[in-house]
Amino acid sequence: MRHAKQHLNIWAILSLVFVAVILFPNLLIGFKFFTEPNENWEHIKFYLMRDYINNTATILIFTAILTILIGTSLAWLIIMYEFPLRGFFRWGLILPLAIPPYIGAYTYHGLLNYTGVIQTTLRNTFDIQVNQSYFNIMSTQGAVFIFTLFLYPYVYTITKSFFQYQSASLIENAILLGSSPTSTFFRVALPLSRATIVGSVTLVMLEVLNDYGVVSYFGIQTFSTAIFRTWYGMKDLDSALKLAGTLMFIVIVVLILEKMLRGRKRYSYASTKVRPIHPKRLKGWKGWLLFAYSFAIFSIAFLVPLAQLLYWAFMTYETIWSQAFFQLAKNSIFVASITSTIIISIALIIANFTRMHQSLFTKLVSRVTTLGYSIPGAAIAIAIITIFISIDTFLAKWDTGIVLRTSLVMLISAYVIRFLAIGYNSVEAGFEKIGNTFTEASRLLGASTIRTFFMVDLPLMKNAIAAGFILVFVDILKELPLTLFLQPFNFATLATQAFKYANDERVQEASIASLLIILISATAIFIFHRVLEKKEAN
Fold this sequence. Notes:
Layout: H1 2-33, H2 39-80, E1 81-82, H3 86-92, H4 101-112, H5 117-124, H6 140-166, H7 168-176, H8 181-192, H9 194-210, H10 213-218, H11 223-232, H12 237-262, E2 280-281, H13 285-320, H14 323-356, H15 360-369, H16 377-397, H17 408-434, H18 437-444, H19 449-460, H20 462-478, H21 481-486, H22 494-503, H23 511-537
Parallel strand pairs: 1-2
């Protein structure tokens, strides 16, 4: 019993250490927000803050509305009807998530500008001169367009799963009682799925708040660009922290609104026999109409930007495909692999502690662990910079020669804080699936907590661990704001190099790095879809 308590204390201590590391940057931002303001902050507050708030709010609101419309409508049509290529669209409509919005931004700008393929074709083939304002995507409206295209899969994927299983019986009963599909959608499906839709669109809004690549490339003044400019342009860390605090306040407002919109209603079933909806086969023009809608969204959000990137890659591969490019790929894979391993290790420790010791405290630990994903990358970056500057100042007193602020340690630390929630959710789901039966049997046979963890739990958890590792790996591979803020000197990744080329108006040269990111992400999406389909079949 003594050894068991000691081992449990070890899990508890390690969990508390990791939770404190995650929580500290947030507390720092909150503390710095109320410190004495300087002249830069007064200027920002009186002359620039209104633009930051208006632009951020406009992009958030319209992106949320459009992603709900597209994602929910596609989910309903895919679940309810059988039409040509429906099987492909079930997972194909998720693929736009493989394209980071900043890559989509410079791809569409390259397509639509004066020298792009669309205007060039109109001038040279059809002798049509167009008004340039019609094709100007570098605006707030253009940013909403980009975010909608490449983030709607969040709403589509989560809502589709809910329609197919959680609300299947109620939807089918409504139809059997004579309700039309349209009436069933508005009177049954939408009210039932309100919490699901709100939760999924909240993820979209958090991604928009985290973005730096799109708004920076389009020249839109938002909090992310303001933080970057204040820190790098003015060298004013205090004002950057206050901006980060303001951005954190917006995040809190979004999360509170999510809770309010979700409401307190809960829907559950008395029976465990929950079956999927059997889609109705559509023949003739109706089926082809649904095919056209699905194909149009898939083309605009995935095929068109992919085709443009492939064309640019063919034009530039001789100059880009070099030893330097392999170094970029090596850097990206290295930092993503190391960070993913660290995140999964921390997630295993915290999740194992919370399942062995169920209490209000462990529930709080679990919530804090997932807090990082709701914090925009720019805010995390500023907090991490402040912390590591303080650490370096302390180490300088001891003449250790260690400088952490220009090392990979700072970047990896920021990655861990931001993406721990993804790894933790996967690991926690794995622990819930295997339960405690085998763990308790091992303990009864005399094995220690640590031995049980390595000999029993880990082998049973291998699928959840692999899933969490791949999800974190892909997210880090695509991540831009943190890497731009915190990358060491002479260290670049595929994401930062692609953005640098695009920002220097060399979008063609950015294509190969972008394609590699998309290829890895799309492969992961396909694998997870297949795994999910097998689980659903069982």
